[in-house]
Amino acid sequence: MNRDFAAKRNQLLARLPLLLNSSLETQTIISAAVRHLAAELSAEAGTVFLADRKTGELTFWALEGGKQELVGKRIGKGKGIVGWVIEHEEAAVVRDTTQDPRFYQNVDRDSAFITKNLICAPLATRGGILGAVQVLNSTAPSGFTEDDRDFLTQAANQLALAIDNARLYETLARQNKQLAALAKKKDEMMSVIAHEFRTPLMLVQSAADLLASGAMQDEESQQKISETLRRGAERVTKLLTNIQSMSLISDRKLAVEAEEFDLPEMIRGVAESRMPGINQRSLFLHLEIEPDIDTVVGDEALLSIVVANLLDNAIRFTPDGGKIVVSARHSAGEIEVGVRDTGIGIEADQIPAIFDKFYEVTDVLNHSSGTYEFKSAGLGLGLATVWAILEAHGTQVKVESTPGKGSYFSFRIPL
């Protein structure tokens, strides 16, 4: 290679970082760089392959001089010259593809492009090989040379650095977006917590003020005040339990203490504790427990939280006068515990998200029945707690739901 020719190539290598850093549209910039490299090397086309980090499959990531339909096409790990270059971490010059057993003909067949010769260089970073860049079909009389290979190898190192930096930038951008969303959720959570605690505390405060005033002298009035105090305290306790449960789960301190316990008795106890709210809403609650079901093995305290949260969920989302059924039945050698309601139901696309912390179904504030309007708002912690507790037990919750007709939440306990 003469001195002027070498100087020209060195100038291109010096300008390449400026081109690669000129935009955040990484794929567009890489394509432009490949176009410059193909032109400098007197090649008909140039391509960039990226290797899948898990499977090793190779994907056409950028293509210049060929059919763009190939972009996104995948070939198997280790296939072709490009697969060999990635596995051996060294560049290759192929002067006649028909004489090289490594050549993978399927790509030519699919693209109607005839590859006669090529240079391929690995995209190497300190973290490993990202893929490879290759230029195809030299138009120079002498074909591709060893000097061409060395030049492409140097350029490939710069391409690899640009791709690696772009991936890092995308990862940081994604993490920043997630952190911003989390911060927003935390702000929303604090607002919801303040709202949720305000209502029962106002009830307690009002009842306490009435008692302190001495205005409630008769027994019936005092009983009403006592009931108001009880409901307010119960609601605060429930809120604190949900928050504490999720705190333990988030800190991975949730320990399952599995023991034999009476499942029907636990279900009846949870149902009885929810009767004030059920009666207030004029809901119909029915227990369907098969008579031969008695004891099971699990953490009774945690599983009672699961049943309580599923029942609370049904109460919150079922309009006044609706029906709720809590069941326990044998199913495929296990016990299936379920809560079915005639509530507002859940859209299919929302079901995967309802177990996320702080998630609330969109129509939670909009359902009503007759002249009664039941407005429900909460922390969105109940179903996240259910998921985590059941996961700790080695099982999971299943959901069947039809918008406007109701939902069925269930889980299984091994016998």
Q: What key phrases describe this protein's structure?
A:
six-stranded antiparallel β-sheet; alpha+beta; 2 domains; 415 residues; Beta-Lactamase
DSSP strand tally: 15
CATH architecture of the largest domain: 2-Layer Sandwich
Give the SSE string.
HHEEEHEHEEHHEHHEEHEEEEHEE
In the predicted model, the low-confidence regions spanning at least 5 consecutive residues are: 362-379
Average pLDDT, rounded to a whole number, is 81
Strand content: 15-25%
Spatial separation of the terminal alpha carbons:
79 Å
Question: Largest sheet, order of strands side by side?
Answer: 3-2-1-6-5-4
Number of domains: 2
* CATH T-level fold name of the largest domain: Beta-Lactamase
> What is the level 1 CATH name of the largest domain?
Alpha Beta
Described by strand count, sense and barrel closure, the largest sheet is:
6 strands, antiparallel
Q: What is the share of helical residues?
A: 40-55%
Count of helix runs: 10
Helices and strands in order, then pairings?
Layout: H1 3-20, H2 26-40, E1 43-51, E2 58-64, E3 74-75, H3 80-88, E4 92-94, H4 106-111, E5 118-125, E6 128-138, H5 146-213, H6 219-250, E7 259-262, H7 263-273, H8 275-280, E8 284-289, E9 295-298, H9 300-317, E10 323-331, E11 334-341, E12 368-369, E13 372-373, H10 382-392, E14 398-402, E15 406-414
Short description:
Helix 5 (146-213) packs antiparallel against helix 6 and helix 6 (219-250) crosses helix 10. The protein has ten helices and 15 strands.
